[in-house]
Amino acid sequence: MECPDLHSLILEELSEILAASGVRSGSDGQLDPEAERILAQCPALPTSTQAGGVVVTRRHENAILALANLLSRAPDRGILDRVLSYLDALPSYSYKFAPLGSGSLPIEHWFVERLLTRLLACAAQAPHLANEIMDRVWTHLDRLVDVLQGSDLEFAVTFGLPAFLGAMDALERTRFRFRACDVPHVDALATRLLATATVDNVRAAVGAAAAAAAPARRTVWLYQQSGVGLSANHVLAQFLVVVRAVLESRAALRLVASGDLDPELVAAKDPRGLWDLISLIDSPHEGLQRSGGSSDERQQAYARVLAFSLQAYADARSLVLASPLSADGAARAMASTGLRIMCRSVYAAALASLLLGQLDARLLDSVFEHIGSSHAQSLAPLTVVCFRVLATAAAFFPRSRDAIATAISRFLTDPPVALAAELPQAGGVSEAEQMLVAPAAAALVACLRVAGAGRARAISAIHTLFNALAVHRIATPAGAHTLRVARNVVLALAQLAQLHCDAEVTELVVSMICAPRFAAASQLRELAVQCAADVAPIAARPVFSDIVSSVLKRIAFGSGADDAVNTSTSDALAALAWKIGSQQDLVEAFFCAVMRAFVDASIDAPAPPRLRKQLVTPLSVYLPVLHALVQTDTFAMDREATAEQIALWRGFWFQMVARGYLLDKSYVAVYGRIYSDLAAHAPILVHPSSVNYLETELECSSVLLRESSDA
Predict the structure, then answer these.
(1) What 3-state class would DSSP assign to 94?
(2) Cα–Cα distance for residue pair 629/587, rounded to 1 Å
(3) Do 650 and 595 meet the contact criterion of CB atoms below 8 Å apart?
């Protein structure tokens, strides 16, 4: 957005002051004298004989925006009439602005965006004015499409396209809740935008502008410099965002009416966050039933929006497959725009199906086709949206659950060759895996959440996933496809446990993740450890202890050591310490297990007398975990330690002193802070219940007894 100039800042400040003072127009429609000062700097309204003859300068634009800002802060009928008059007149003006620098969008773009943003803010604040404002906004958009279809190609590029794109940005970002009566307007605009005449005219206008003189060529150049190619596809992609916003508002209100969502939660949530709200619903009503005021005409509008979205998806898919994202230059830009259209159109189609109360078979087929294709990895953003669509469909359309669960299981257990080749075969959870497998597991959980049968279905699905590994021989080394399946299964099992939050399900998942077949394959050890640690916070106390014990057993030193596994295990355990920091019983049990493991490892494989930074030792693995545990809010072992815990502390400090870790400068330089924090949280090393502790220790000392007998 362009930085405001001094004139703009003065008018904006004046409008803020007037709004705070409660300025109002009189009963005769006359504005307050101070508001008239702003109005006096606005351009004259063109008459029918002046169309295109009234020139709007930057100062005129500043005055119009200041008047709109006053309206958004203090809604008033007299001010609204004037602002709407200027909105209607925008296509009739000629524009003369100072050119912008590189990287900025044309002034017409952000001028219209800011004007509509303030009008929509007024509509949200003053519901009694909303109908009039929205009717004029939709009329304005219709007039902009007229400009895009008109014969003046230069004006279509210099004003029509920037103004339309600016309007789309304003409609996308508004917090105004769209009404049912807005849906037919969206339907009408969709029909006009997808018309061949509109698309061809926009292409011709942009093509002519590229070879024309300024300002048309400059407009195209500014969009290119901003990373956005000016094209018919970009216009469609931005319009689909508005389609999504309108449908999301309607779906959110339907969910409130059906009792599936708390109205206060919906009111507090950004309208664009509907997917997050849907994920909170455990047992939604089947479909979104038509509300009492929902007319057949409106339902038909939803059906047409659905058809429009699916058509846009099909066209964009053809474009993307013909011009892959790996291409260079213009082809890559076209593919990127096509990908945005695909994501937004399949999203809009899902919302339209939700509002229609029936799942469209064409939508489901398109989603199944994509997640089962070799493009699931290269078009990862679309894959994520597809899984969200499947999760929503599974939640609201029970009859589709079996088919969706089957498709997701196939994606996990029989992935496309390209997916197996591109994702890592070793290490912890990669970013690509987190992006693809986690949404797939979330969609699978949505299929399993059936009232009264959730646990049974979840256990069945878990066994199905785990049994899929029976046909694969997991060994070291293993093939890429086998490892891809194994990693998918481990990740999906962990996600299922975390999302389902059932004790029996969690225990079953833990037993599978910690199974010997995963420990035997070096390429899977780090992943299994990380997933087990991710599941641990939701596990019951006995299962939590089993997880910690199993993970600690993966740590080994000496000839059989795997430094990568040791390091990743240490990181996973330290992260787990922070996650359970509010549960004192788990913190203490965890701390004792780690300290016991450290003492045992220090006896069997002590660190060398001098620090070697590249060497993985018990200190480098266990000390960060102990440090994370003593820093949790509920750690109280320094005040409430039992005799057994004190004995562990004594063993710990004995190893630290006997091995010289506290005296060697190289160790102190690296671990000095951890030493001091552990010492600050350590209890007194003699339990208060002990009597004559020192004498008893001396009498029972095997060393002293042996010396005495020798004498």
Answers:
(1) strand
(2) 7
(3) no
Provide the b/e sequence for 664-683 (b: ≥16 CB within 10 Å): beebeebbeebbeebeebbb
Residue 49's contacts (CB-CB under 8 Å, 6 or more residues apart) are none
Angle subtended at Cα 50 by Cα 32 and Cα 150, rounded to the nearest 5 degrees: 115
Three-class SS state of 97: coil
Asked whether 462 and 508 are in contact (CB, 8 A), the reply is yes
d(CA 400, CA 133): 41
CA distance 525 to 695: 48
Which residues face 56 on adjacent strands?
95
CA 683 – CA 296 distance, rounded (Å): 74
Furthest-apart CA pair in the chain: how many Å?
125
Per-residue pLDDT band for 451 (boundaries 50, 70, 90) equals: very low
| pLDDT tens digits along 101-127 | 444 778 888 889 999 999 999 998 888
Please give the helix or strand (H or E) that residue 383 lies within, else none.
Answer: helix 380-396
CA distance 699 to 696: 5
Closest CA to 20 of 29, 28, 12, 31: 12
Token pair in block for residue 221: 């150049």
DSSP per position, 502-535: -HHHHHHHHHHHT-HHHHH-HHHHHHHHHHHHHH
> Among 484, 398, 483, 482, which residue's Cα sits nearest to residue 437?
484
**Partners of 95 in the beta sheet?**
56
Spatial contact of 393 and 350, defined as CB atoms under 8 Å apart: yes
Q: What is the pLDDT of residue 624?
A: 92
Residue type, 3: C
pTM of model > 0.70: yes
Q: Is 56 helix (H, G, I), strand (E, B) or coil?
A: strand
Distance CA 129, CA 146 (A): 26
Position 301 pLDDT exceeds 70: yes
